[in-house]
Every structure is written in C-alpha cells, then in structure tokens.
DNA sequence: CGCCCGATCTGCT
DNA sequence: GCAGATCGGGCGG
C-alpha cells in the first residue's frame, strides 16, 4: 500500500497534477467492497480563471465550496440529472483547482463493477468516461468532500510499468460553452489505452 | 419561485 | 448520428 499523501495534492499547478495522476490507482471501499482502477484519462479545471470551471469568476456556492478547500478532497456532483462525476480537489486552500477523472482501466473488483453497470460481458465502456467510471466504482454524492487519504476513497502510487506510458494532450470534452477556453489542451490521456473515453481529439 | 441547461451515456436509426 | 433521460444548481424576477 502506497497511498498518495496530503502533500501530493497541494501542488498549485493543476495541469502538472493532472498529468501526474495518469497511471495512478483509484480505490473505493464501499460497504466493505473494494474496487480499483488505473487512471488513464484526466482533465484540469483551473479555478477562478477557467471559464469551464464551476469556480470560474470566484463562484462560491454549496456545491462548489469544496473546491476552495485544501487539495486532497473529492468533489462529486450530479451532471445532466443522471451521472455523478468525480474530481480531485487540488492546490492549497482558497485556490479552487480540480482534476476530473475521465477514464479508468479496471484492476480490482471487476465483477462488482460489471454488476453496478448492469453488464454481463466486460467491455471497455465499463469505465471509459466520467459518468461510467463513477457508477462502476460506486461513487455518488455521498462520496463528495471526502478526504482522499481516508478509508472510503483514495489514490495509490502507480505501478512501475505504468510510469513510462506515453501521454497525449488535447482539448477538453463537453466544454464548448467555455468560449475561448474550450480549446485549451488540458485533457490528458495514455496513448492507445482502451479505457480512454474518446480515442481522438 | 420558476426557468434553463449542463465537465454524459445509451439505445435506436 | 442523434434524441431522450432526469434533476439540482444557478440565476433572474
């Protein structure tokens, strides 16, 4: 066990941190049931100056307030009324940066992930995409604002064979509304991995 | 208080 | 390729 420490999440360069999260292992233990996957796709959301961020312009509400906490907490919210999306809050207190986890390669508890997804045959879309992976990992709003060094949801160091995977950067997905920030290449993924939500762009 | 729409996924065409 | 699902947040009145 090599859980990432509190200090890892205090980095205030959210793009650097989004890249560093690739290859690391996300775990949840829900009702005693362990599931885990390797992070293969992330997106950086750069706080108050990023038009695609929920904290753009300093917006501070019941939903977004956790983004302003110290790095190392979860930010889970409901999107389109259906999907829960999981983010890692980063940077020191008052700097509302976050990294959206968009793709995961299943590692542990795959049978349970399939059951949660209602799948009888394992296919890459089990955890390709932020809504899909949250469902597979059992992540919902009850896991919002959790300490990522705790016992319910946490991230561990990458296995050695994942530290040299090739990384690609491209525009973020589904943020056309962010106007001149929509094309910033703040999405990162492992080249060729099956569990990346969209292979191109 | 009411209206609009979203960091998406699925299934049908 | 595209519409529908589904509901809470955010903002204007």
Automatic annotation (TrEMBL):
<keyword id="KW-0234">DNA repair</keyword>
<dbReference type="InterPro" id="IPR036995">
    <property type="entry name" value="MPG_sf"/>
</dbReference>
<comment type="similarity">
    <text>Belongs to the DNA glycosylase MPG family.</text>
</comment>
<dbReference type="InterPro" id="IPR011034">
    <property type="entry name" value="Formyl_transferase-like_C_sf"/>
</dbReference>
<protein>
    <recommendedName>
        <fullName>Putative 3-methyladenine DNA glycosylase</fullName>
        <ecNumber>3.2.2.-</ecNumber>
    </recommendedName>
</protein>
<dbReference type="InterPro" id="IPR003180">
    <property type="entry name" value="MPG"/>
</dbReference>
<keyword id="KW-0227">DNA damage</keyword>
<dbReference type="GO" id="GO:0006284">
    <property type="term" value="P:base-excision repair"/>
</dbReference>
<keyword id="KW-0378">Hydrolase</keyword>
<dbReference type="GO" id="GO:0003905">
    <property type="term" value="F:alkylbase DNA N-glycosylase activity"/>
</dbReference>
<dbReference type="Pfam" id="PF02245">
    <property type="entry name" value="Pur_DNA_glyco"/>
</dbReference>
<dbReference type="GO" id="GO:0003677">
    <property type="term" value="F:DNA binding"/>
</dbReference>
């Amino acid at each position: 066990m090599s859980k990432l420490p509190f200090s890892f999440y205090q980095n205030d360069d959210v793009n650097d941190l989004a890249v560093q999260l690739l290859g690391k292992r996300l775990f949840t233990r829900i009702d005693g049931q362990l599931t885990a996957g390797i992070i293969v796709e992330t997106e950086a959301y750069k706080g108050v100056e990023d038009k695609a961020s929920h904290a753009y312009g300093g917006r501070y509400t019941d939903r977004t307030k956790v983004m302003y906490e110290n790095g190392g907490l979860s930010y889970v919210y409901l999107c389109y009324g259906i999907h829960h999306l999981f983010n890692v809050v980063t940077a020191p207190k008052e700097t509302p940066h976050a990294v959206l986890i968009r793709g995961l390669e299943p590692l542990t508890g795959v049978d349970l992930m399939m059951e949660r997804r209602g799948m009888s045959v394992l296919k890459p879309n089990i955890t390709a995409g932020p809504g899909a992976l949250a469902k597979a990992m059992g992540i919902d709003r009850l896991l919002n604002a959790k300490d990522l060094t705790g016992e319910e949801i946490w991230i561990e160091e990458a296995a050695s064979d994942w530290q040299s995977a090739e990384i690609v950067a491209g525009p973020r997905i589904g943020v056309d509304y962010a106007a001149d920030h929509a094309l910033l290449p703040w999405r990162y993924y492992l080249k060729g991995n099956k569990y990346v939500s969209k292979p191109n762009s």
